[in-house]
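User: I'm preparing a small set of examples for a lab meeting where we compare how different chains pack in three dimensions. I only have the primary sequence for this one, and I'd like the structure in token form so I can line it up with the others. Please keep the answer compact; I'll paste it straight into my notes.
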Amino acid sequence: MSLIQPITPESSAASMVVNCVAYNKRDGKRIGDITLDAISDVLRKPETFVWVGLHEPDESLLLKLQEEFDLHDLAIEDAQQAHQRTKIETYGDSLFVVVQTAQLVNGHIAFGETHIFLGPRYLVTVRHGASLSYAPARRACEYTPDLLALGPSYGLYGVLDFIVDNLLPIVREFREELQELEKDIFADTFNRGTVRRLYDMQRDLMTLRLAAAPLQDIISQLVRMHPHLIQDELRAYFRDVYDHVFRVNESISAMREMLAAAISVNLSLVTFNQNEVMKKLAGWAAMLAAPTLLTSWYGMNFTHMPELAQPWAYPMIIVVVISVVAGIFFGLKRAKWF
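Assistant: Understood. Below is the structure token output for the 338-residue chain.
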């Protein structure tokens, strides 16, 4: 009976099993798709390893994988809960890695998790939430069978590199959106929606940084440690992923500073424009206060006011009012209040 069997739709776990593939360690070539029940039979052959890709599996499927690969109880429990921090754990001769993933959906970042089980002869990826399929990473690894022949650790490199490379376009998209928002940032009128969007972008980038920053420690461990799982020939590839993560973190930090500056500039310009309006209103109030003061002075009901009896009194008061108002106007204009 052949061990190479396609995964059939009749299987209860078919919708959660994205891929279950056996590979030959001698040449790194794909042997073919296998069923979950055939994993233990394939692993009896010493020159094979298995790469399994899952998407939001249920408890029974995870327990099935635990039985096939002899996975640790704590790792299975973490993979089932799917609300873990980014970390790397060692269980015997295997590694359990938790990585947060991100996708840009309708201008906002949606986050997910990927749990990775790495052993000497198996690689299991478990995706939860927002995450792209790792089929492109798998195909890229299969295009270089000489490196895939080094074992499942090359598949781990392919998955991590795929995750990290999908983070930088998110930051680039935010930078392009910020450039489009510049005309609203420097507008004369206050737009609450602009400030709201800038704040949302800064919040999303902060969450993205919390997801990306711990990756440096994880990949640094993979570069320096775990010689029984990571071959020396592959450490240069993990160093390349480390450089990509460092670049992503630097871009996120720079973008957050740009957003903080944009929010500050926008609020400062709004405050400046409000001050300009208040200065003009104060200037008009001052010009109106002068004739009001003079007319109220001569509007008092005193019997003895010498000017009232003179024929030039009325034209004179008009000239005085105009002169005072003109003097205030030109004084404020010189002070650039108008």
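A couple of notes for your slides: DSSP finds ten helices and seven strands in the chain. The longest strand covers residues 94-105.

User: Perfect, thanks.
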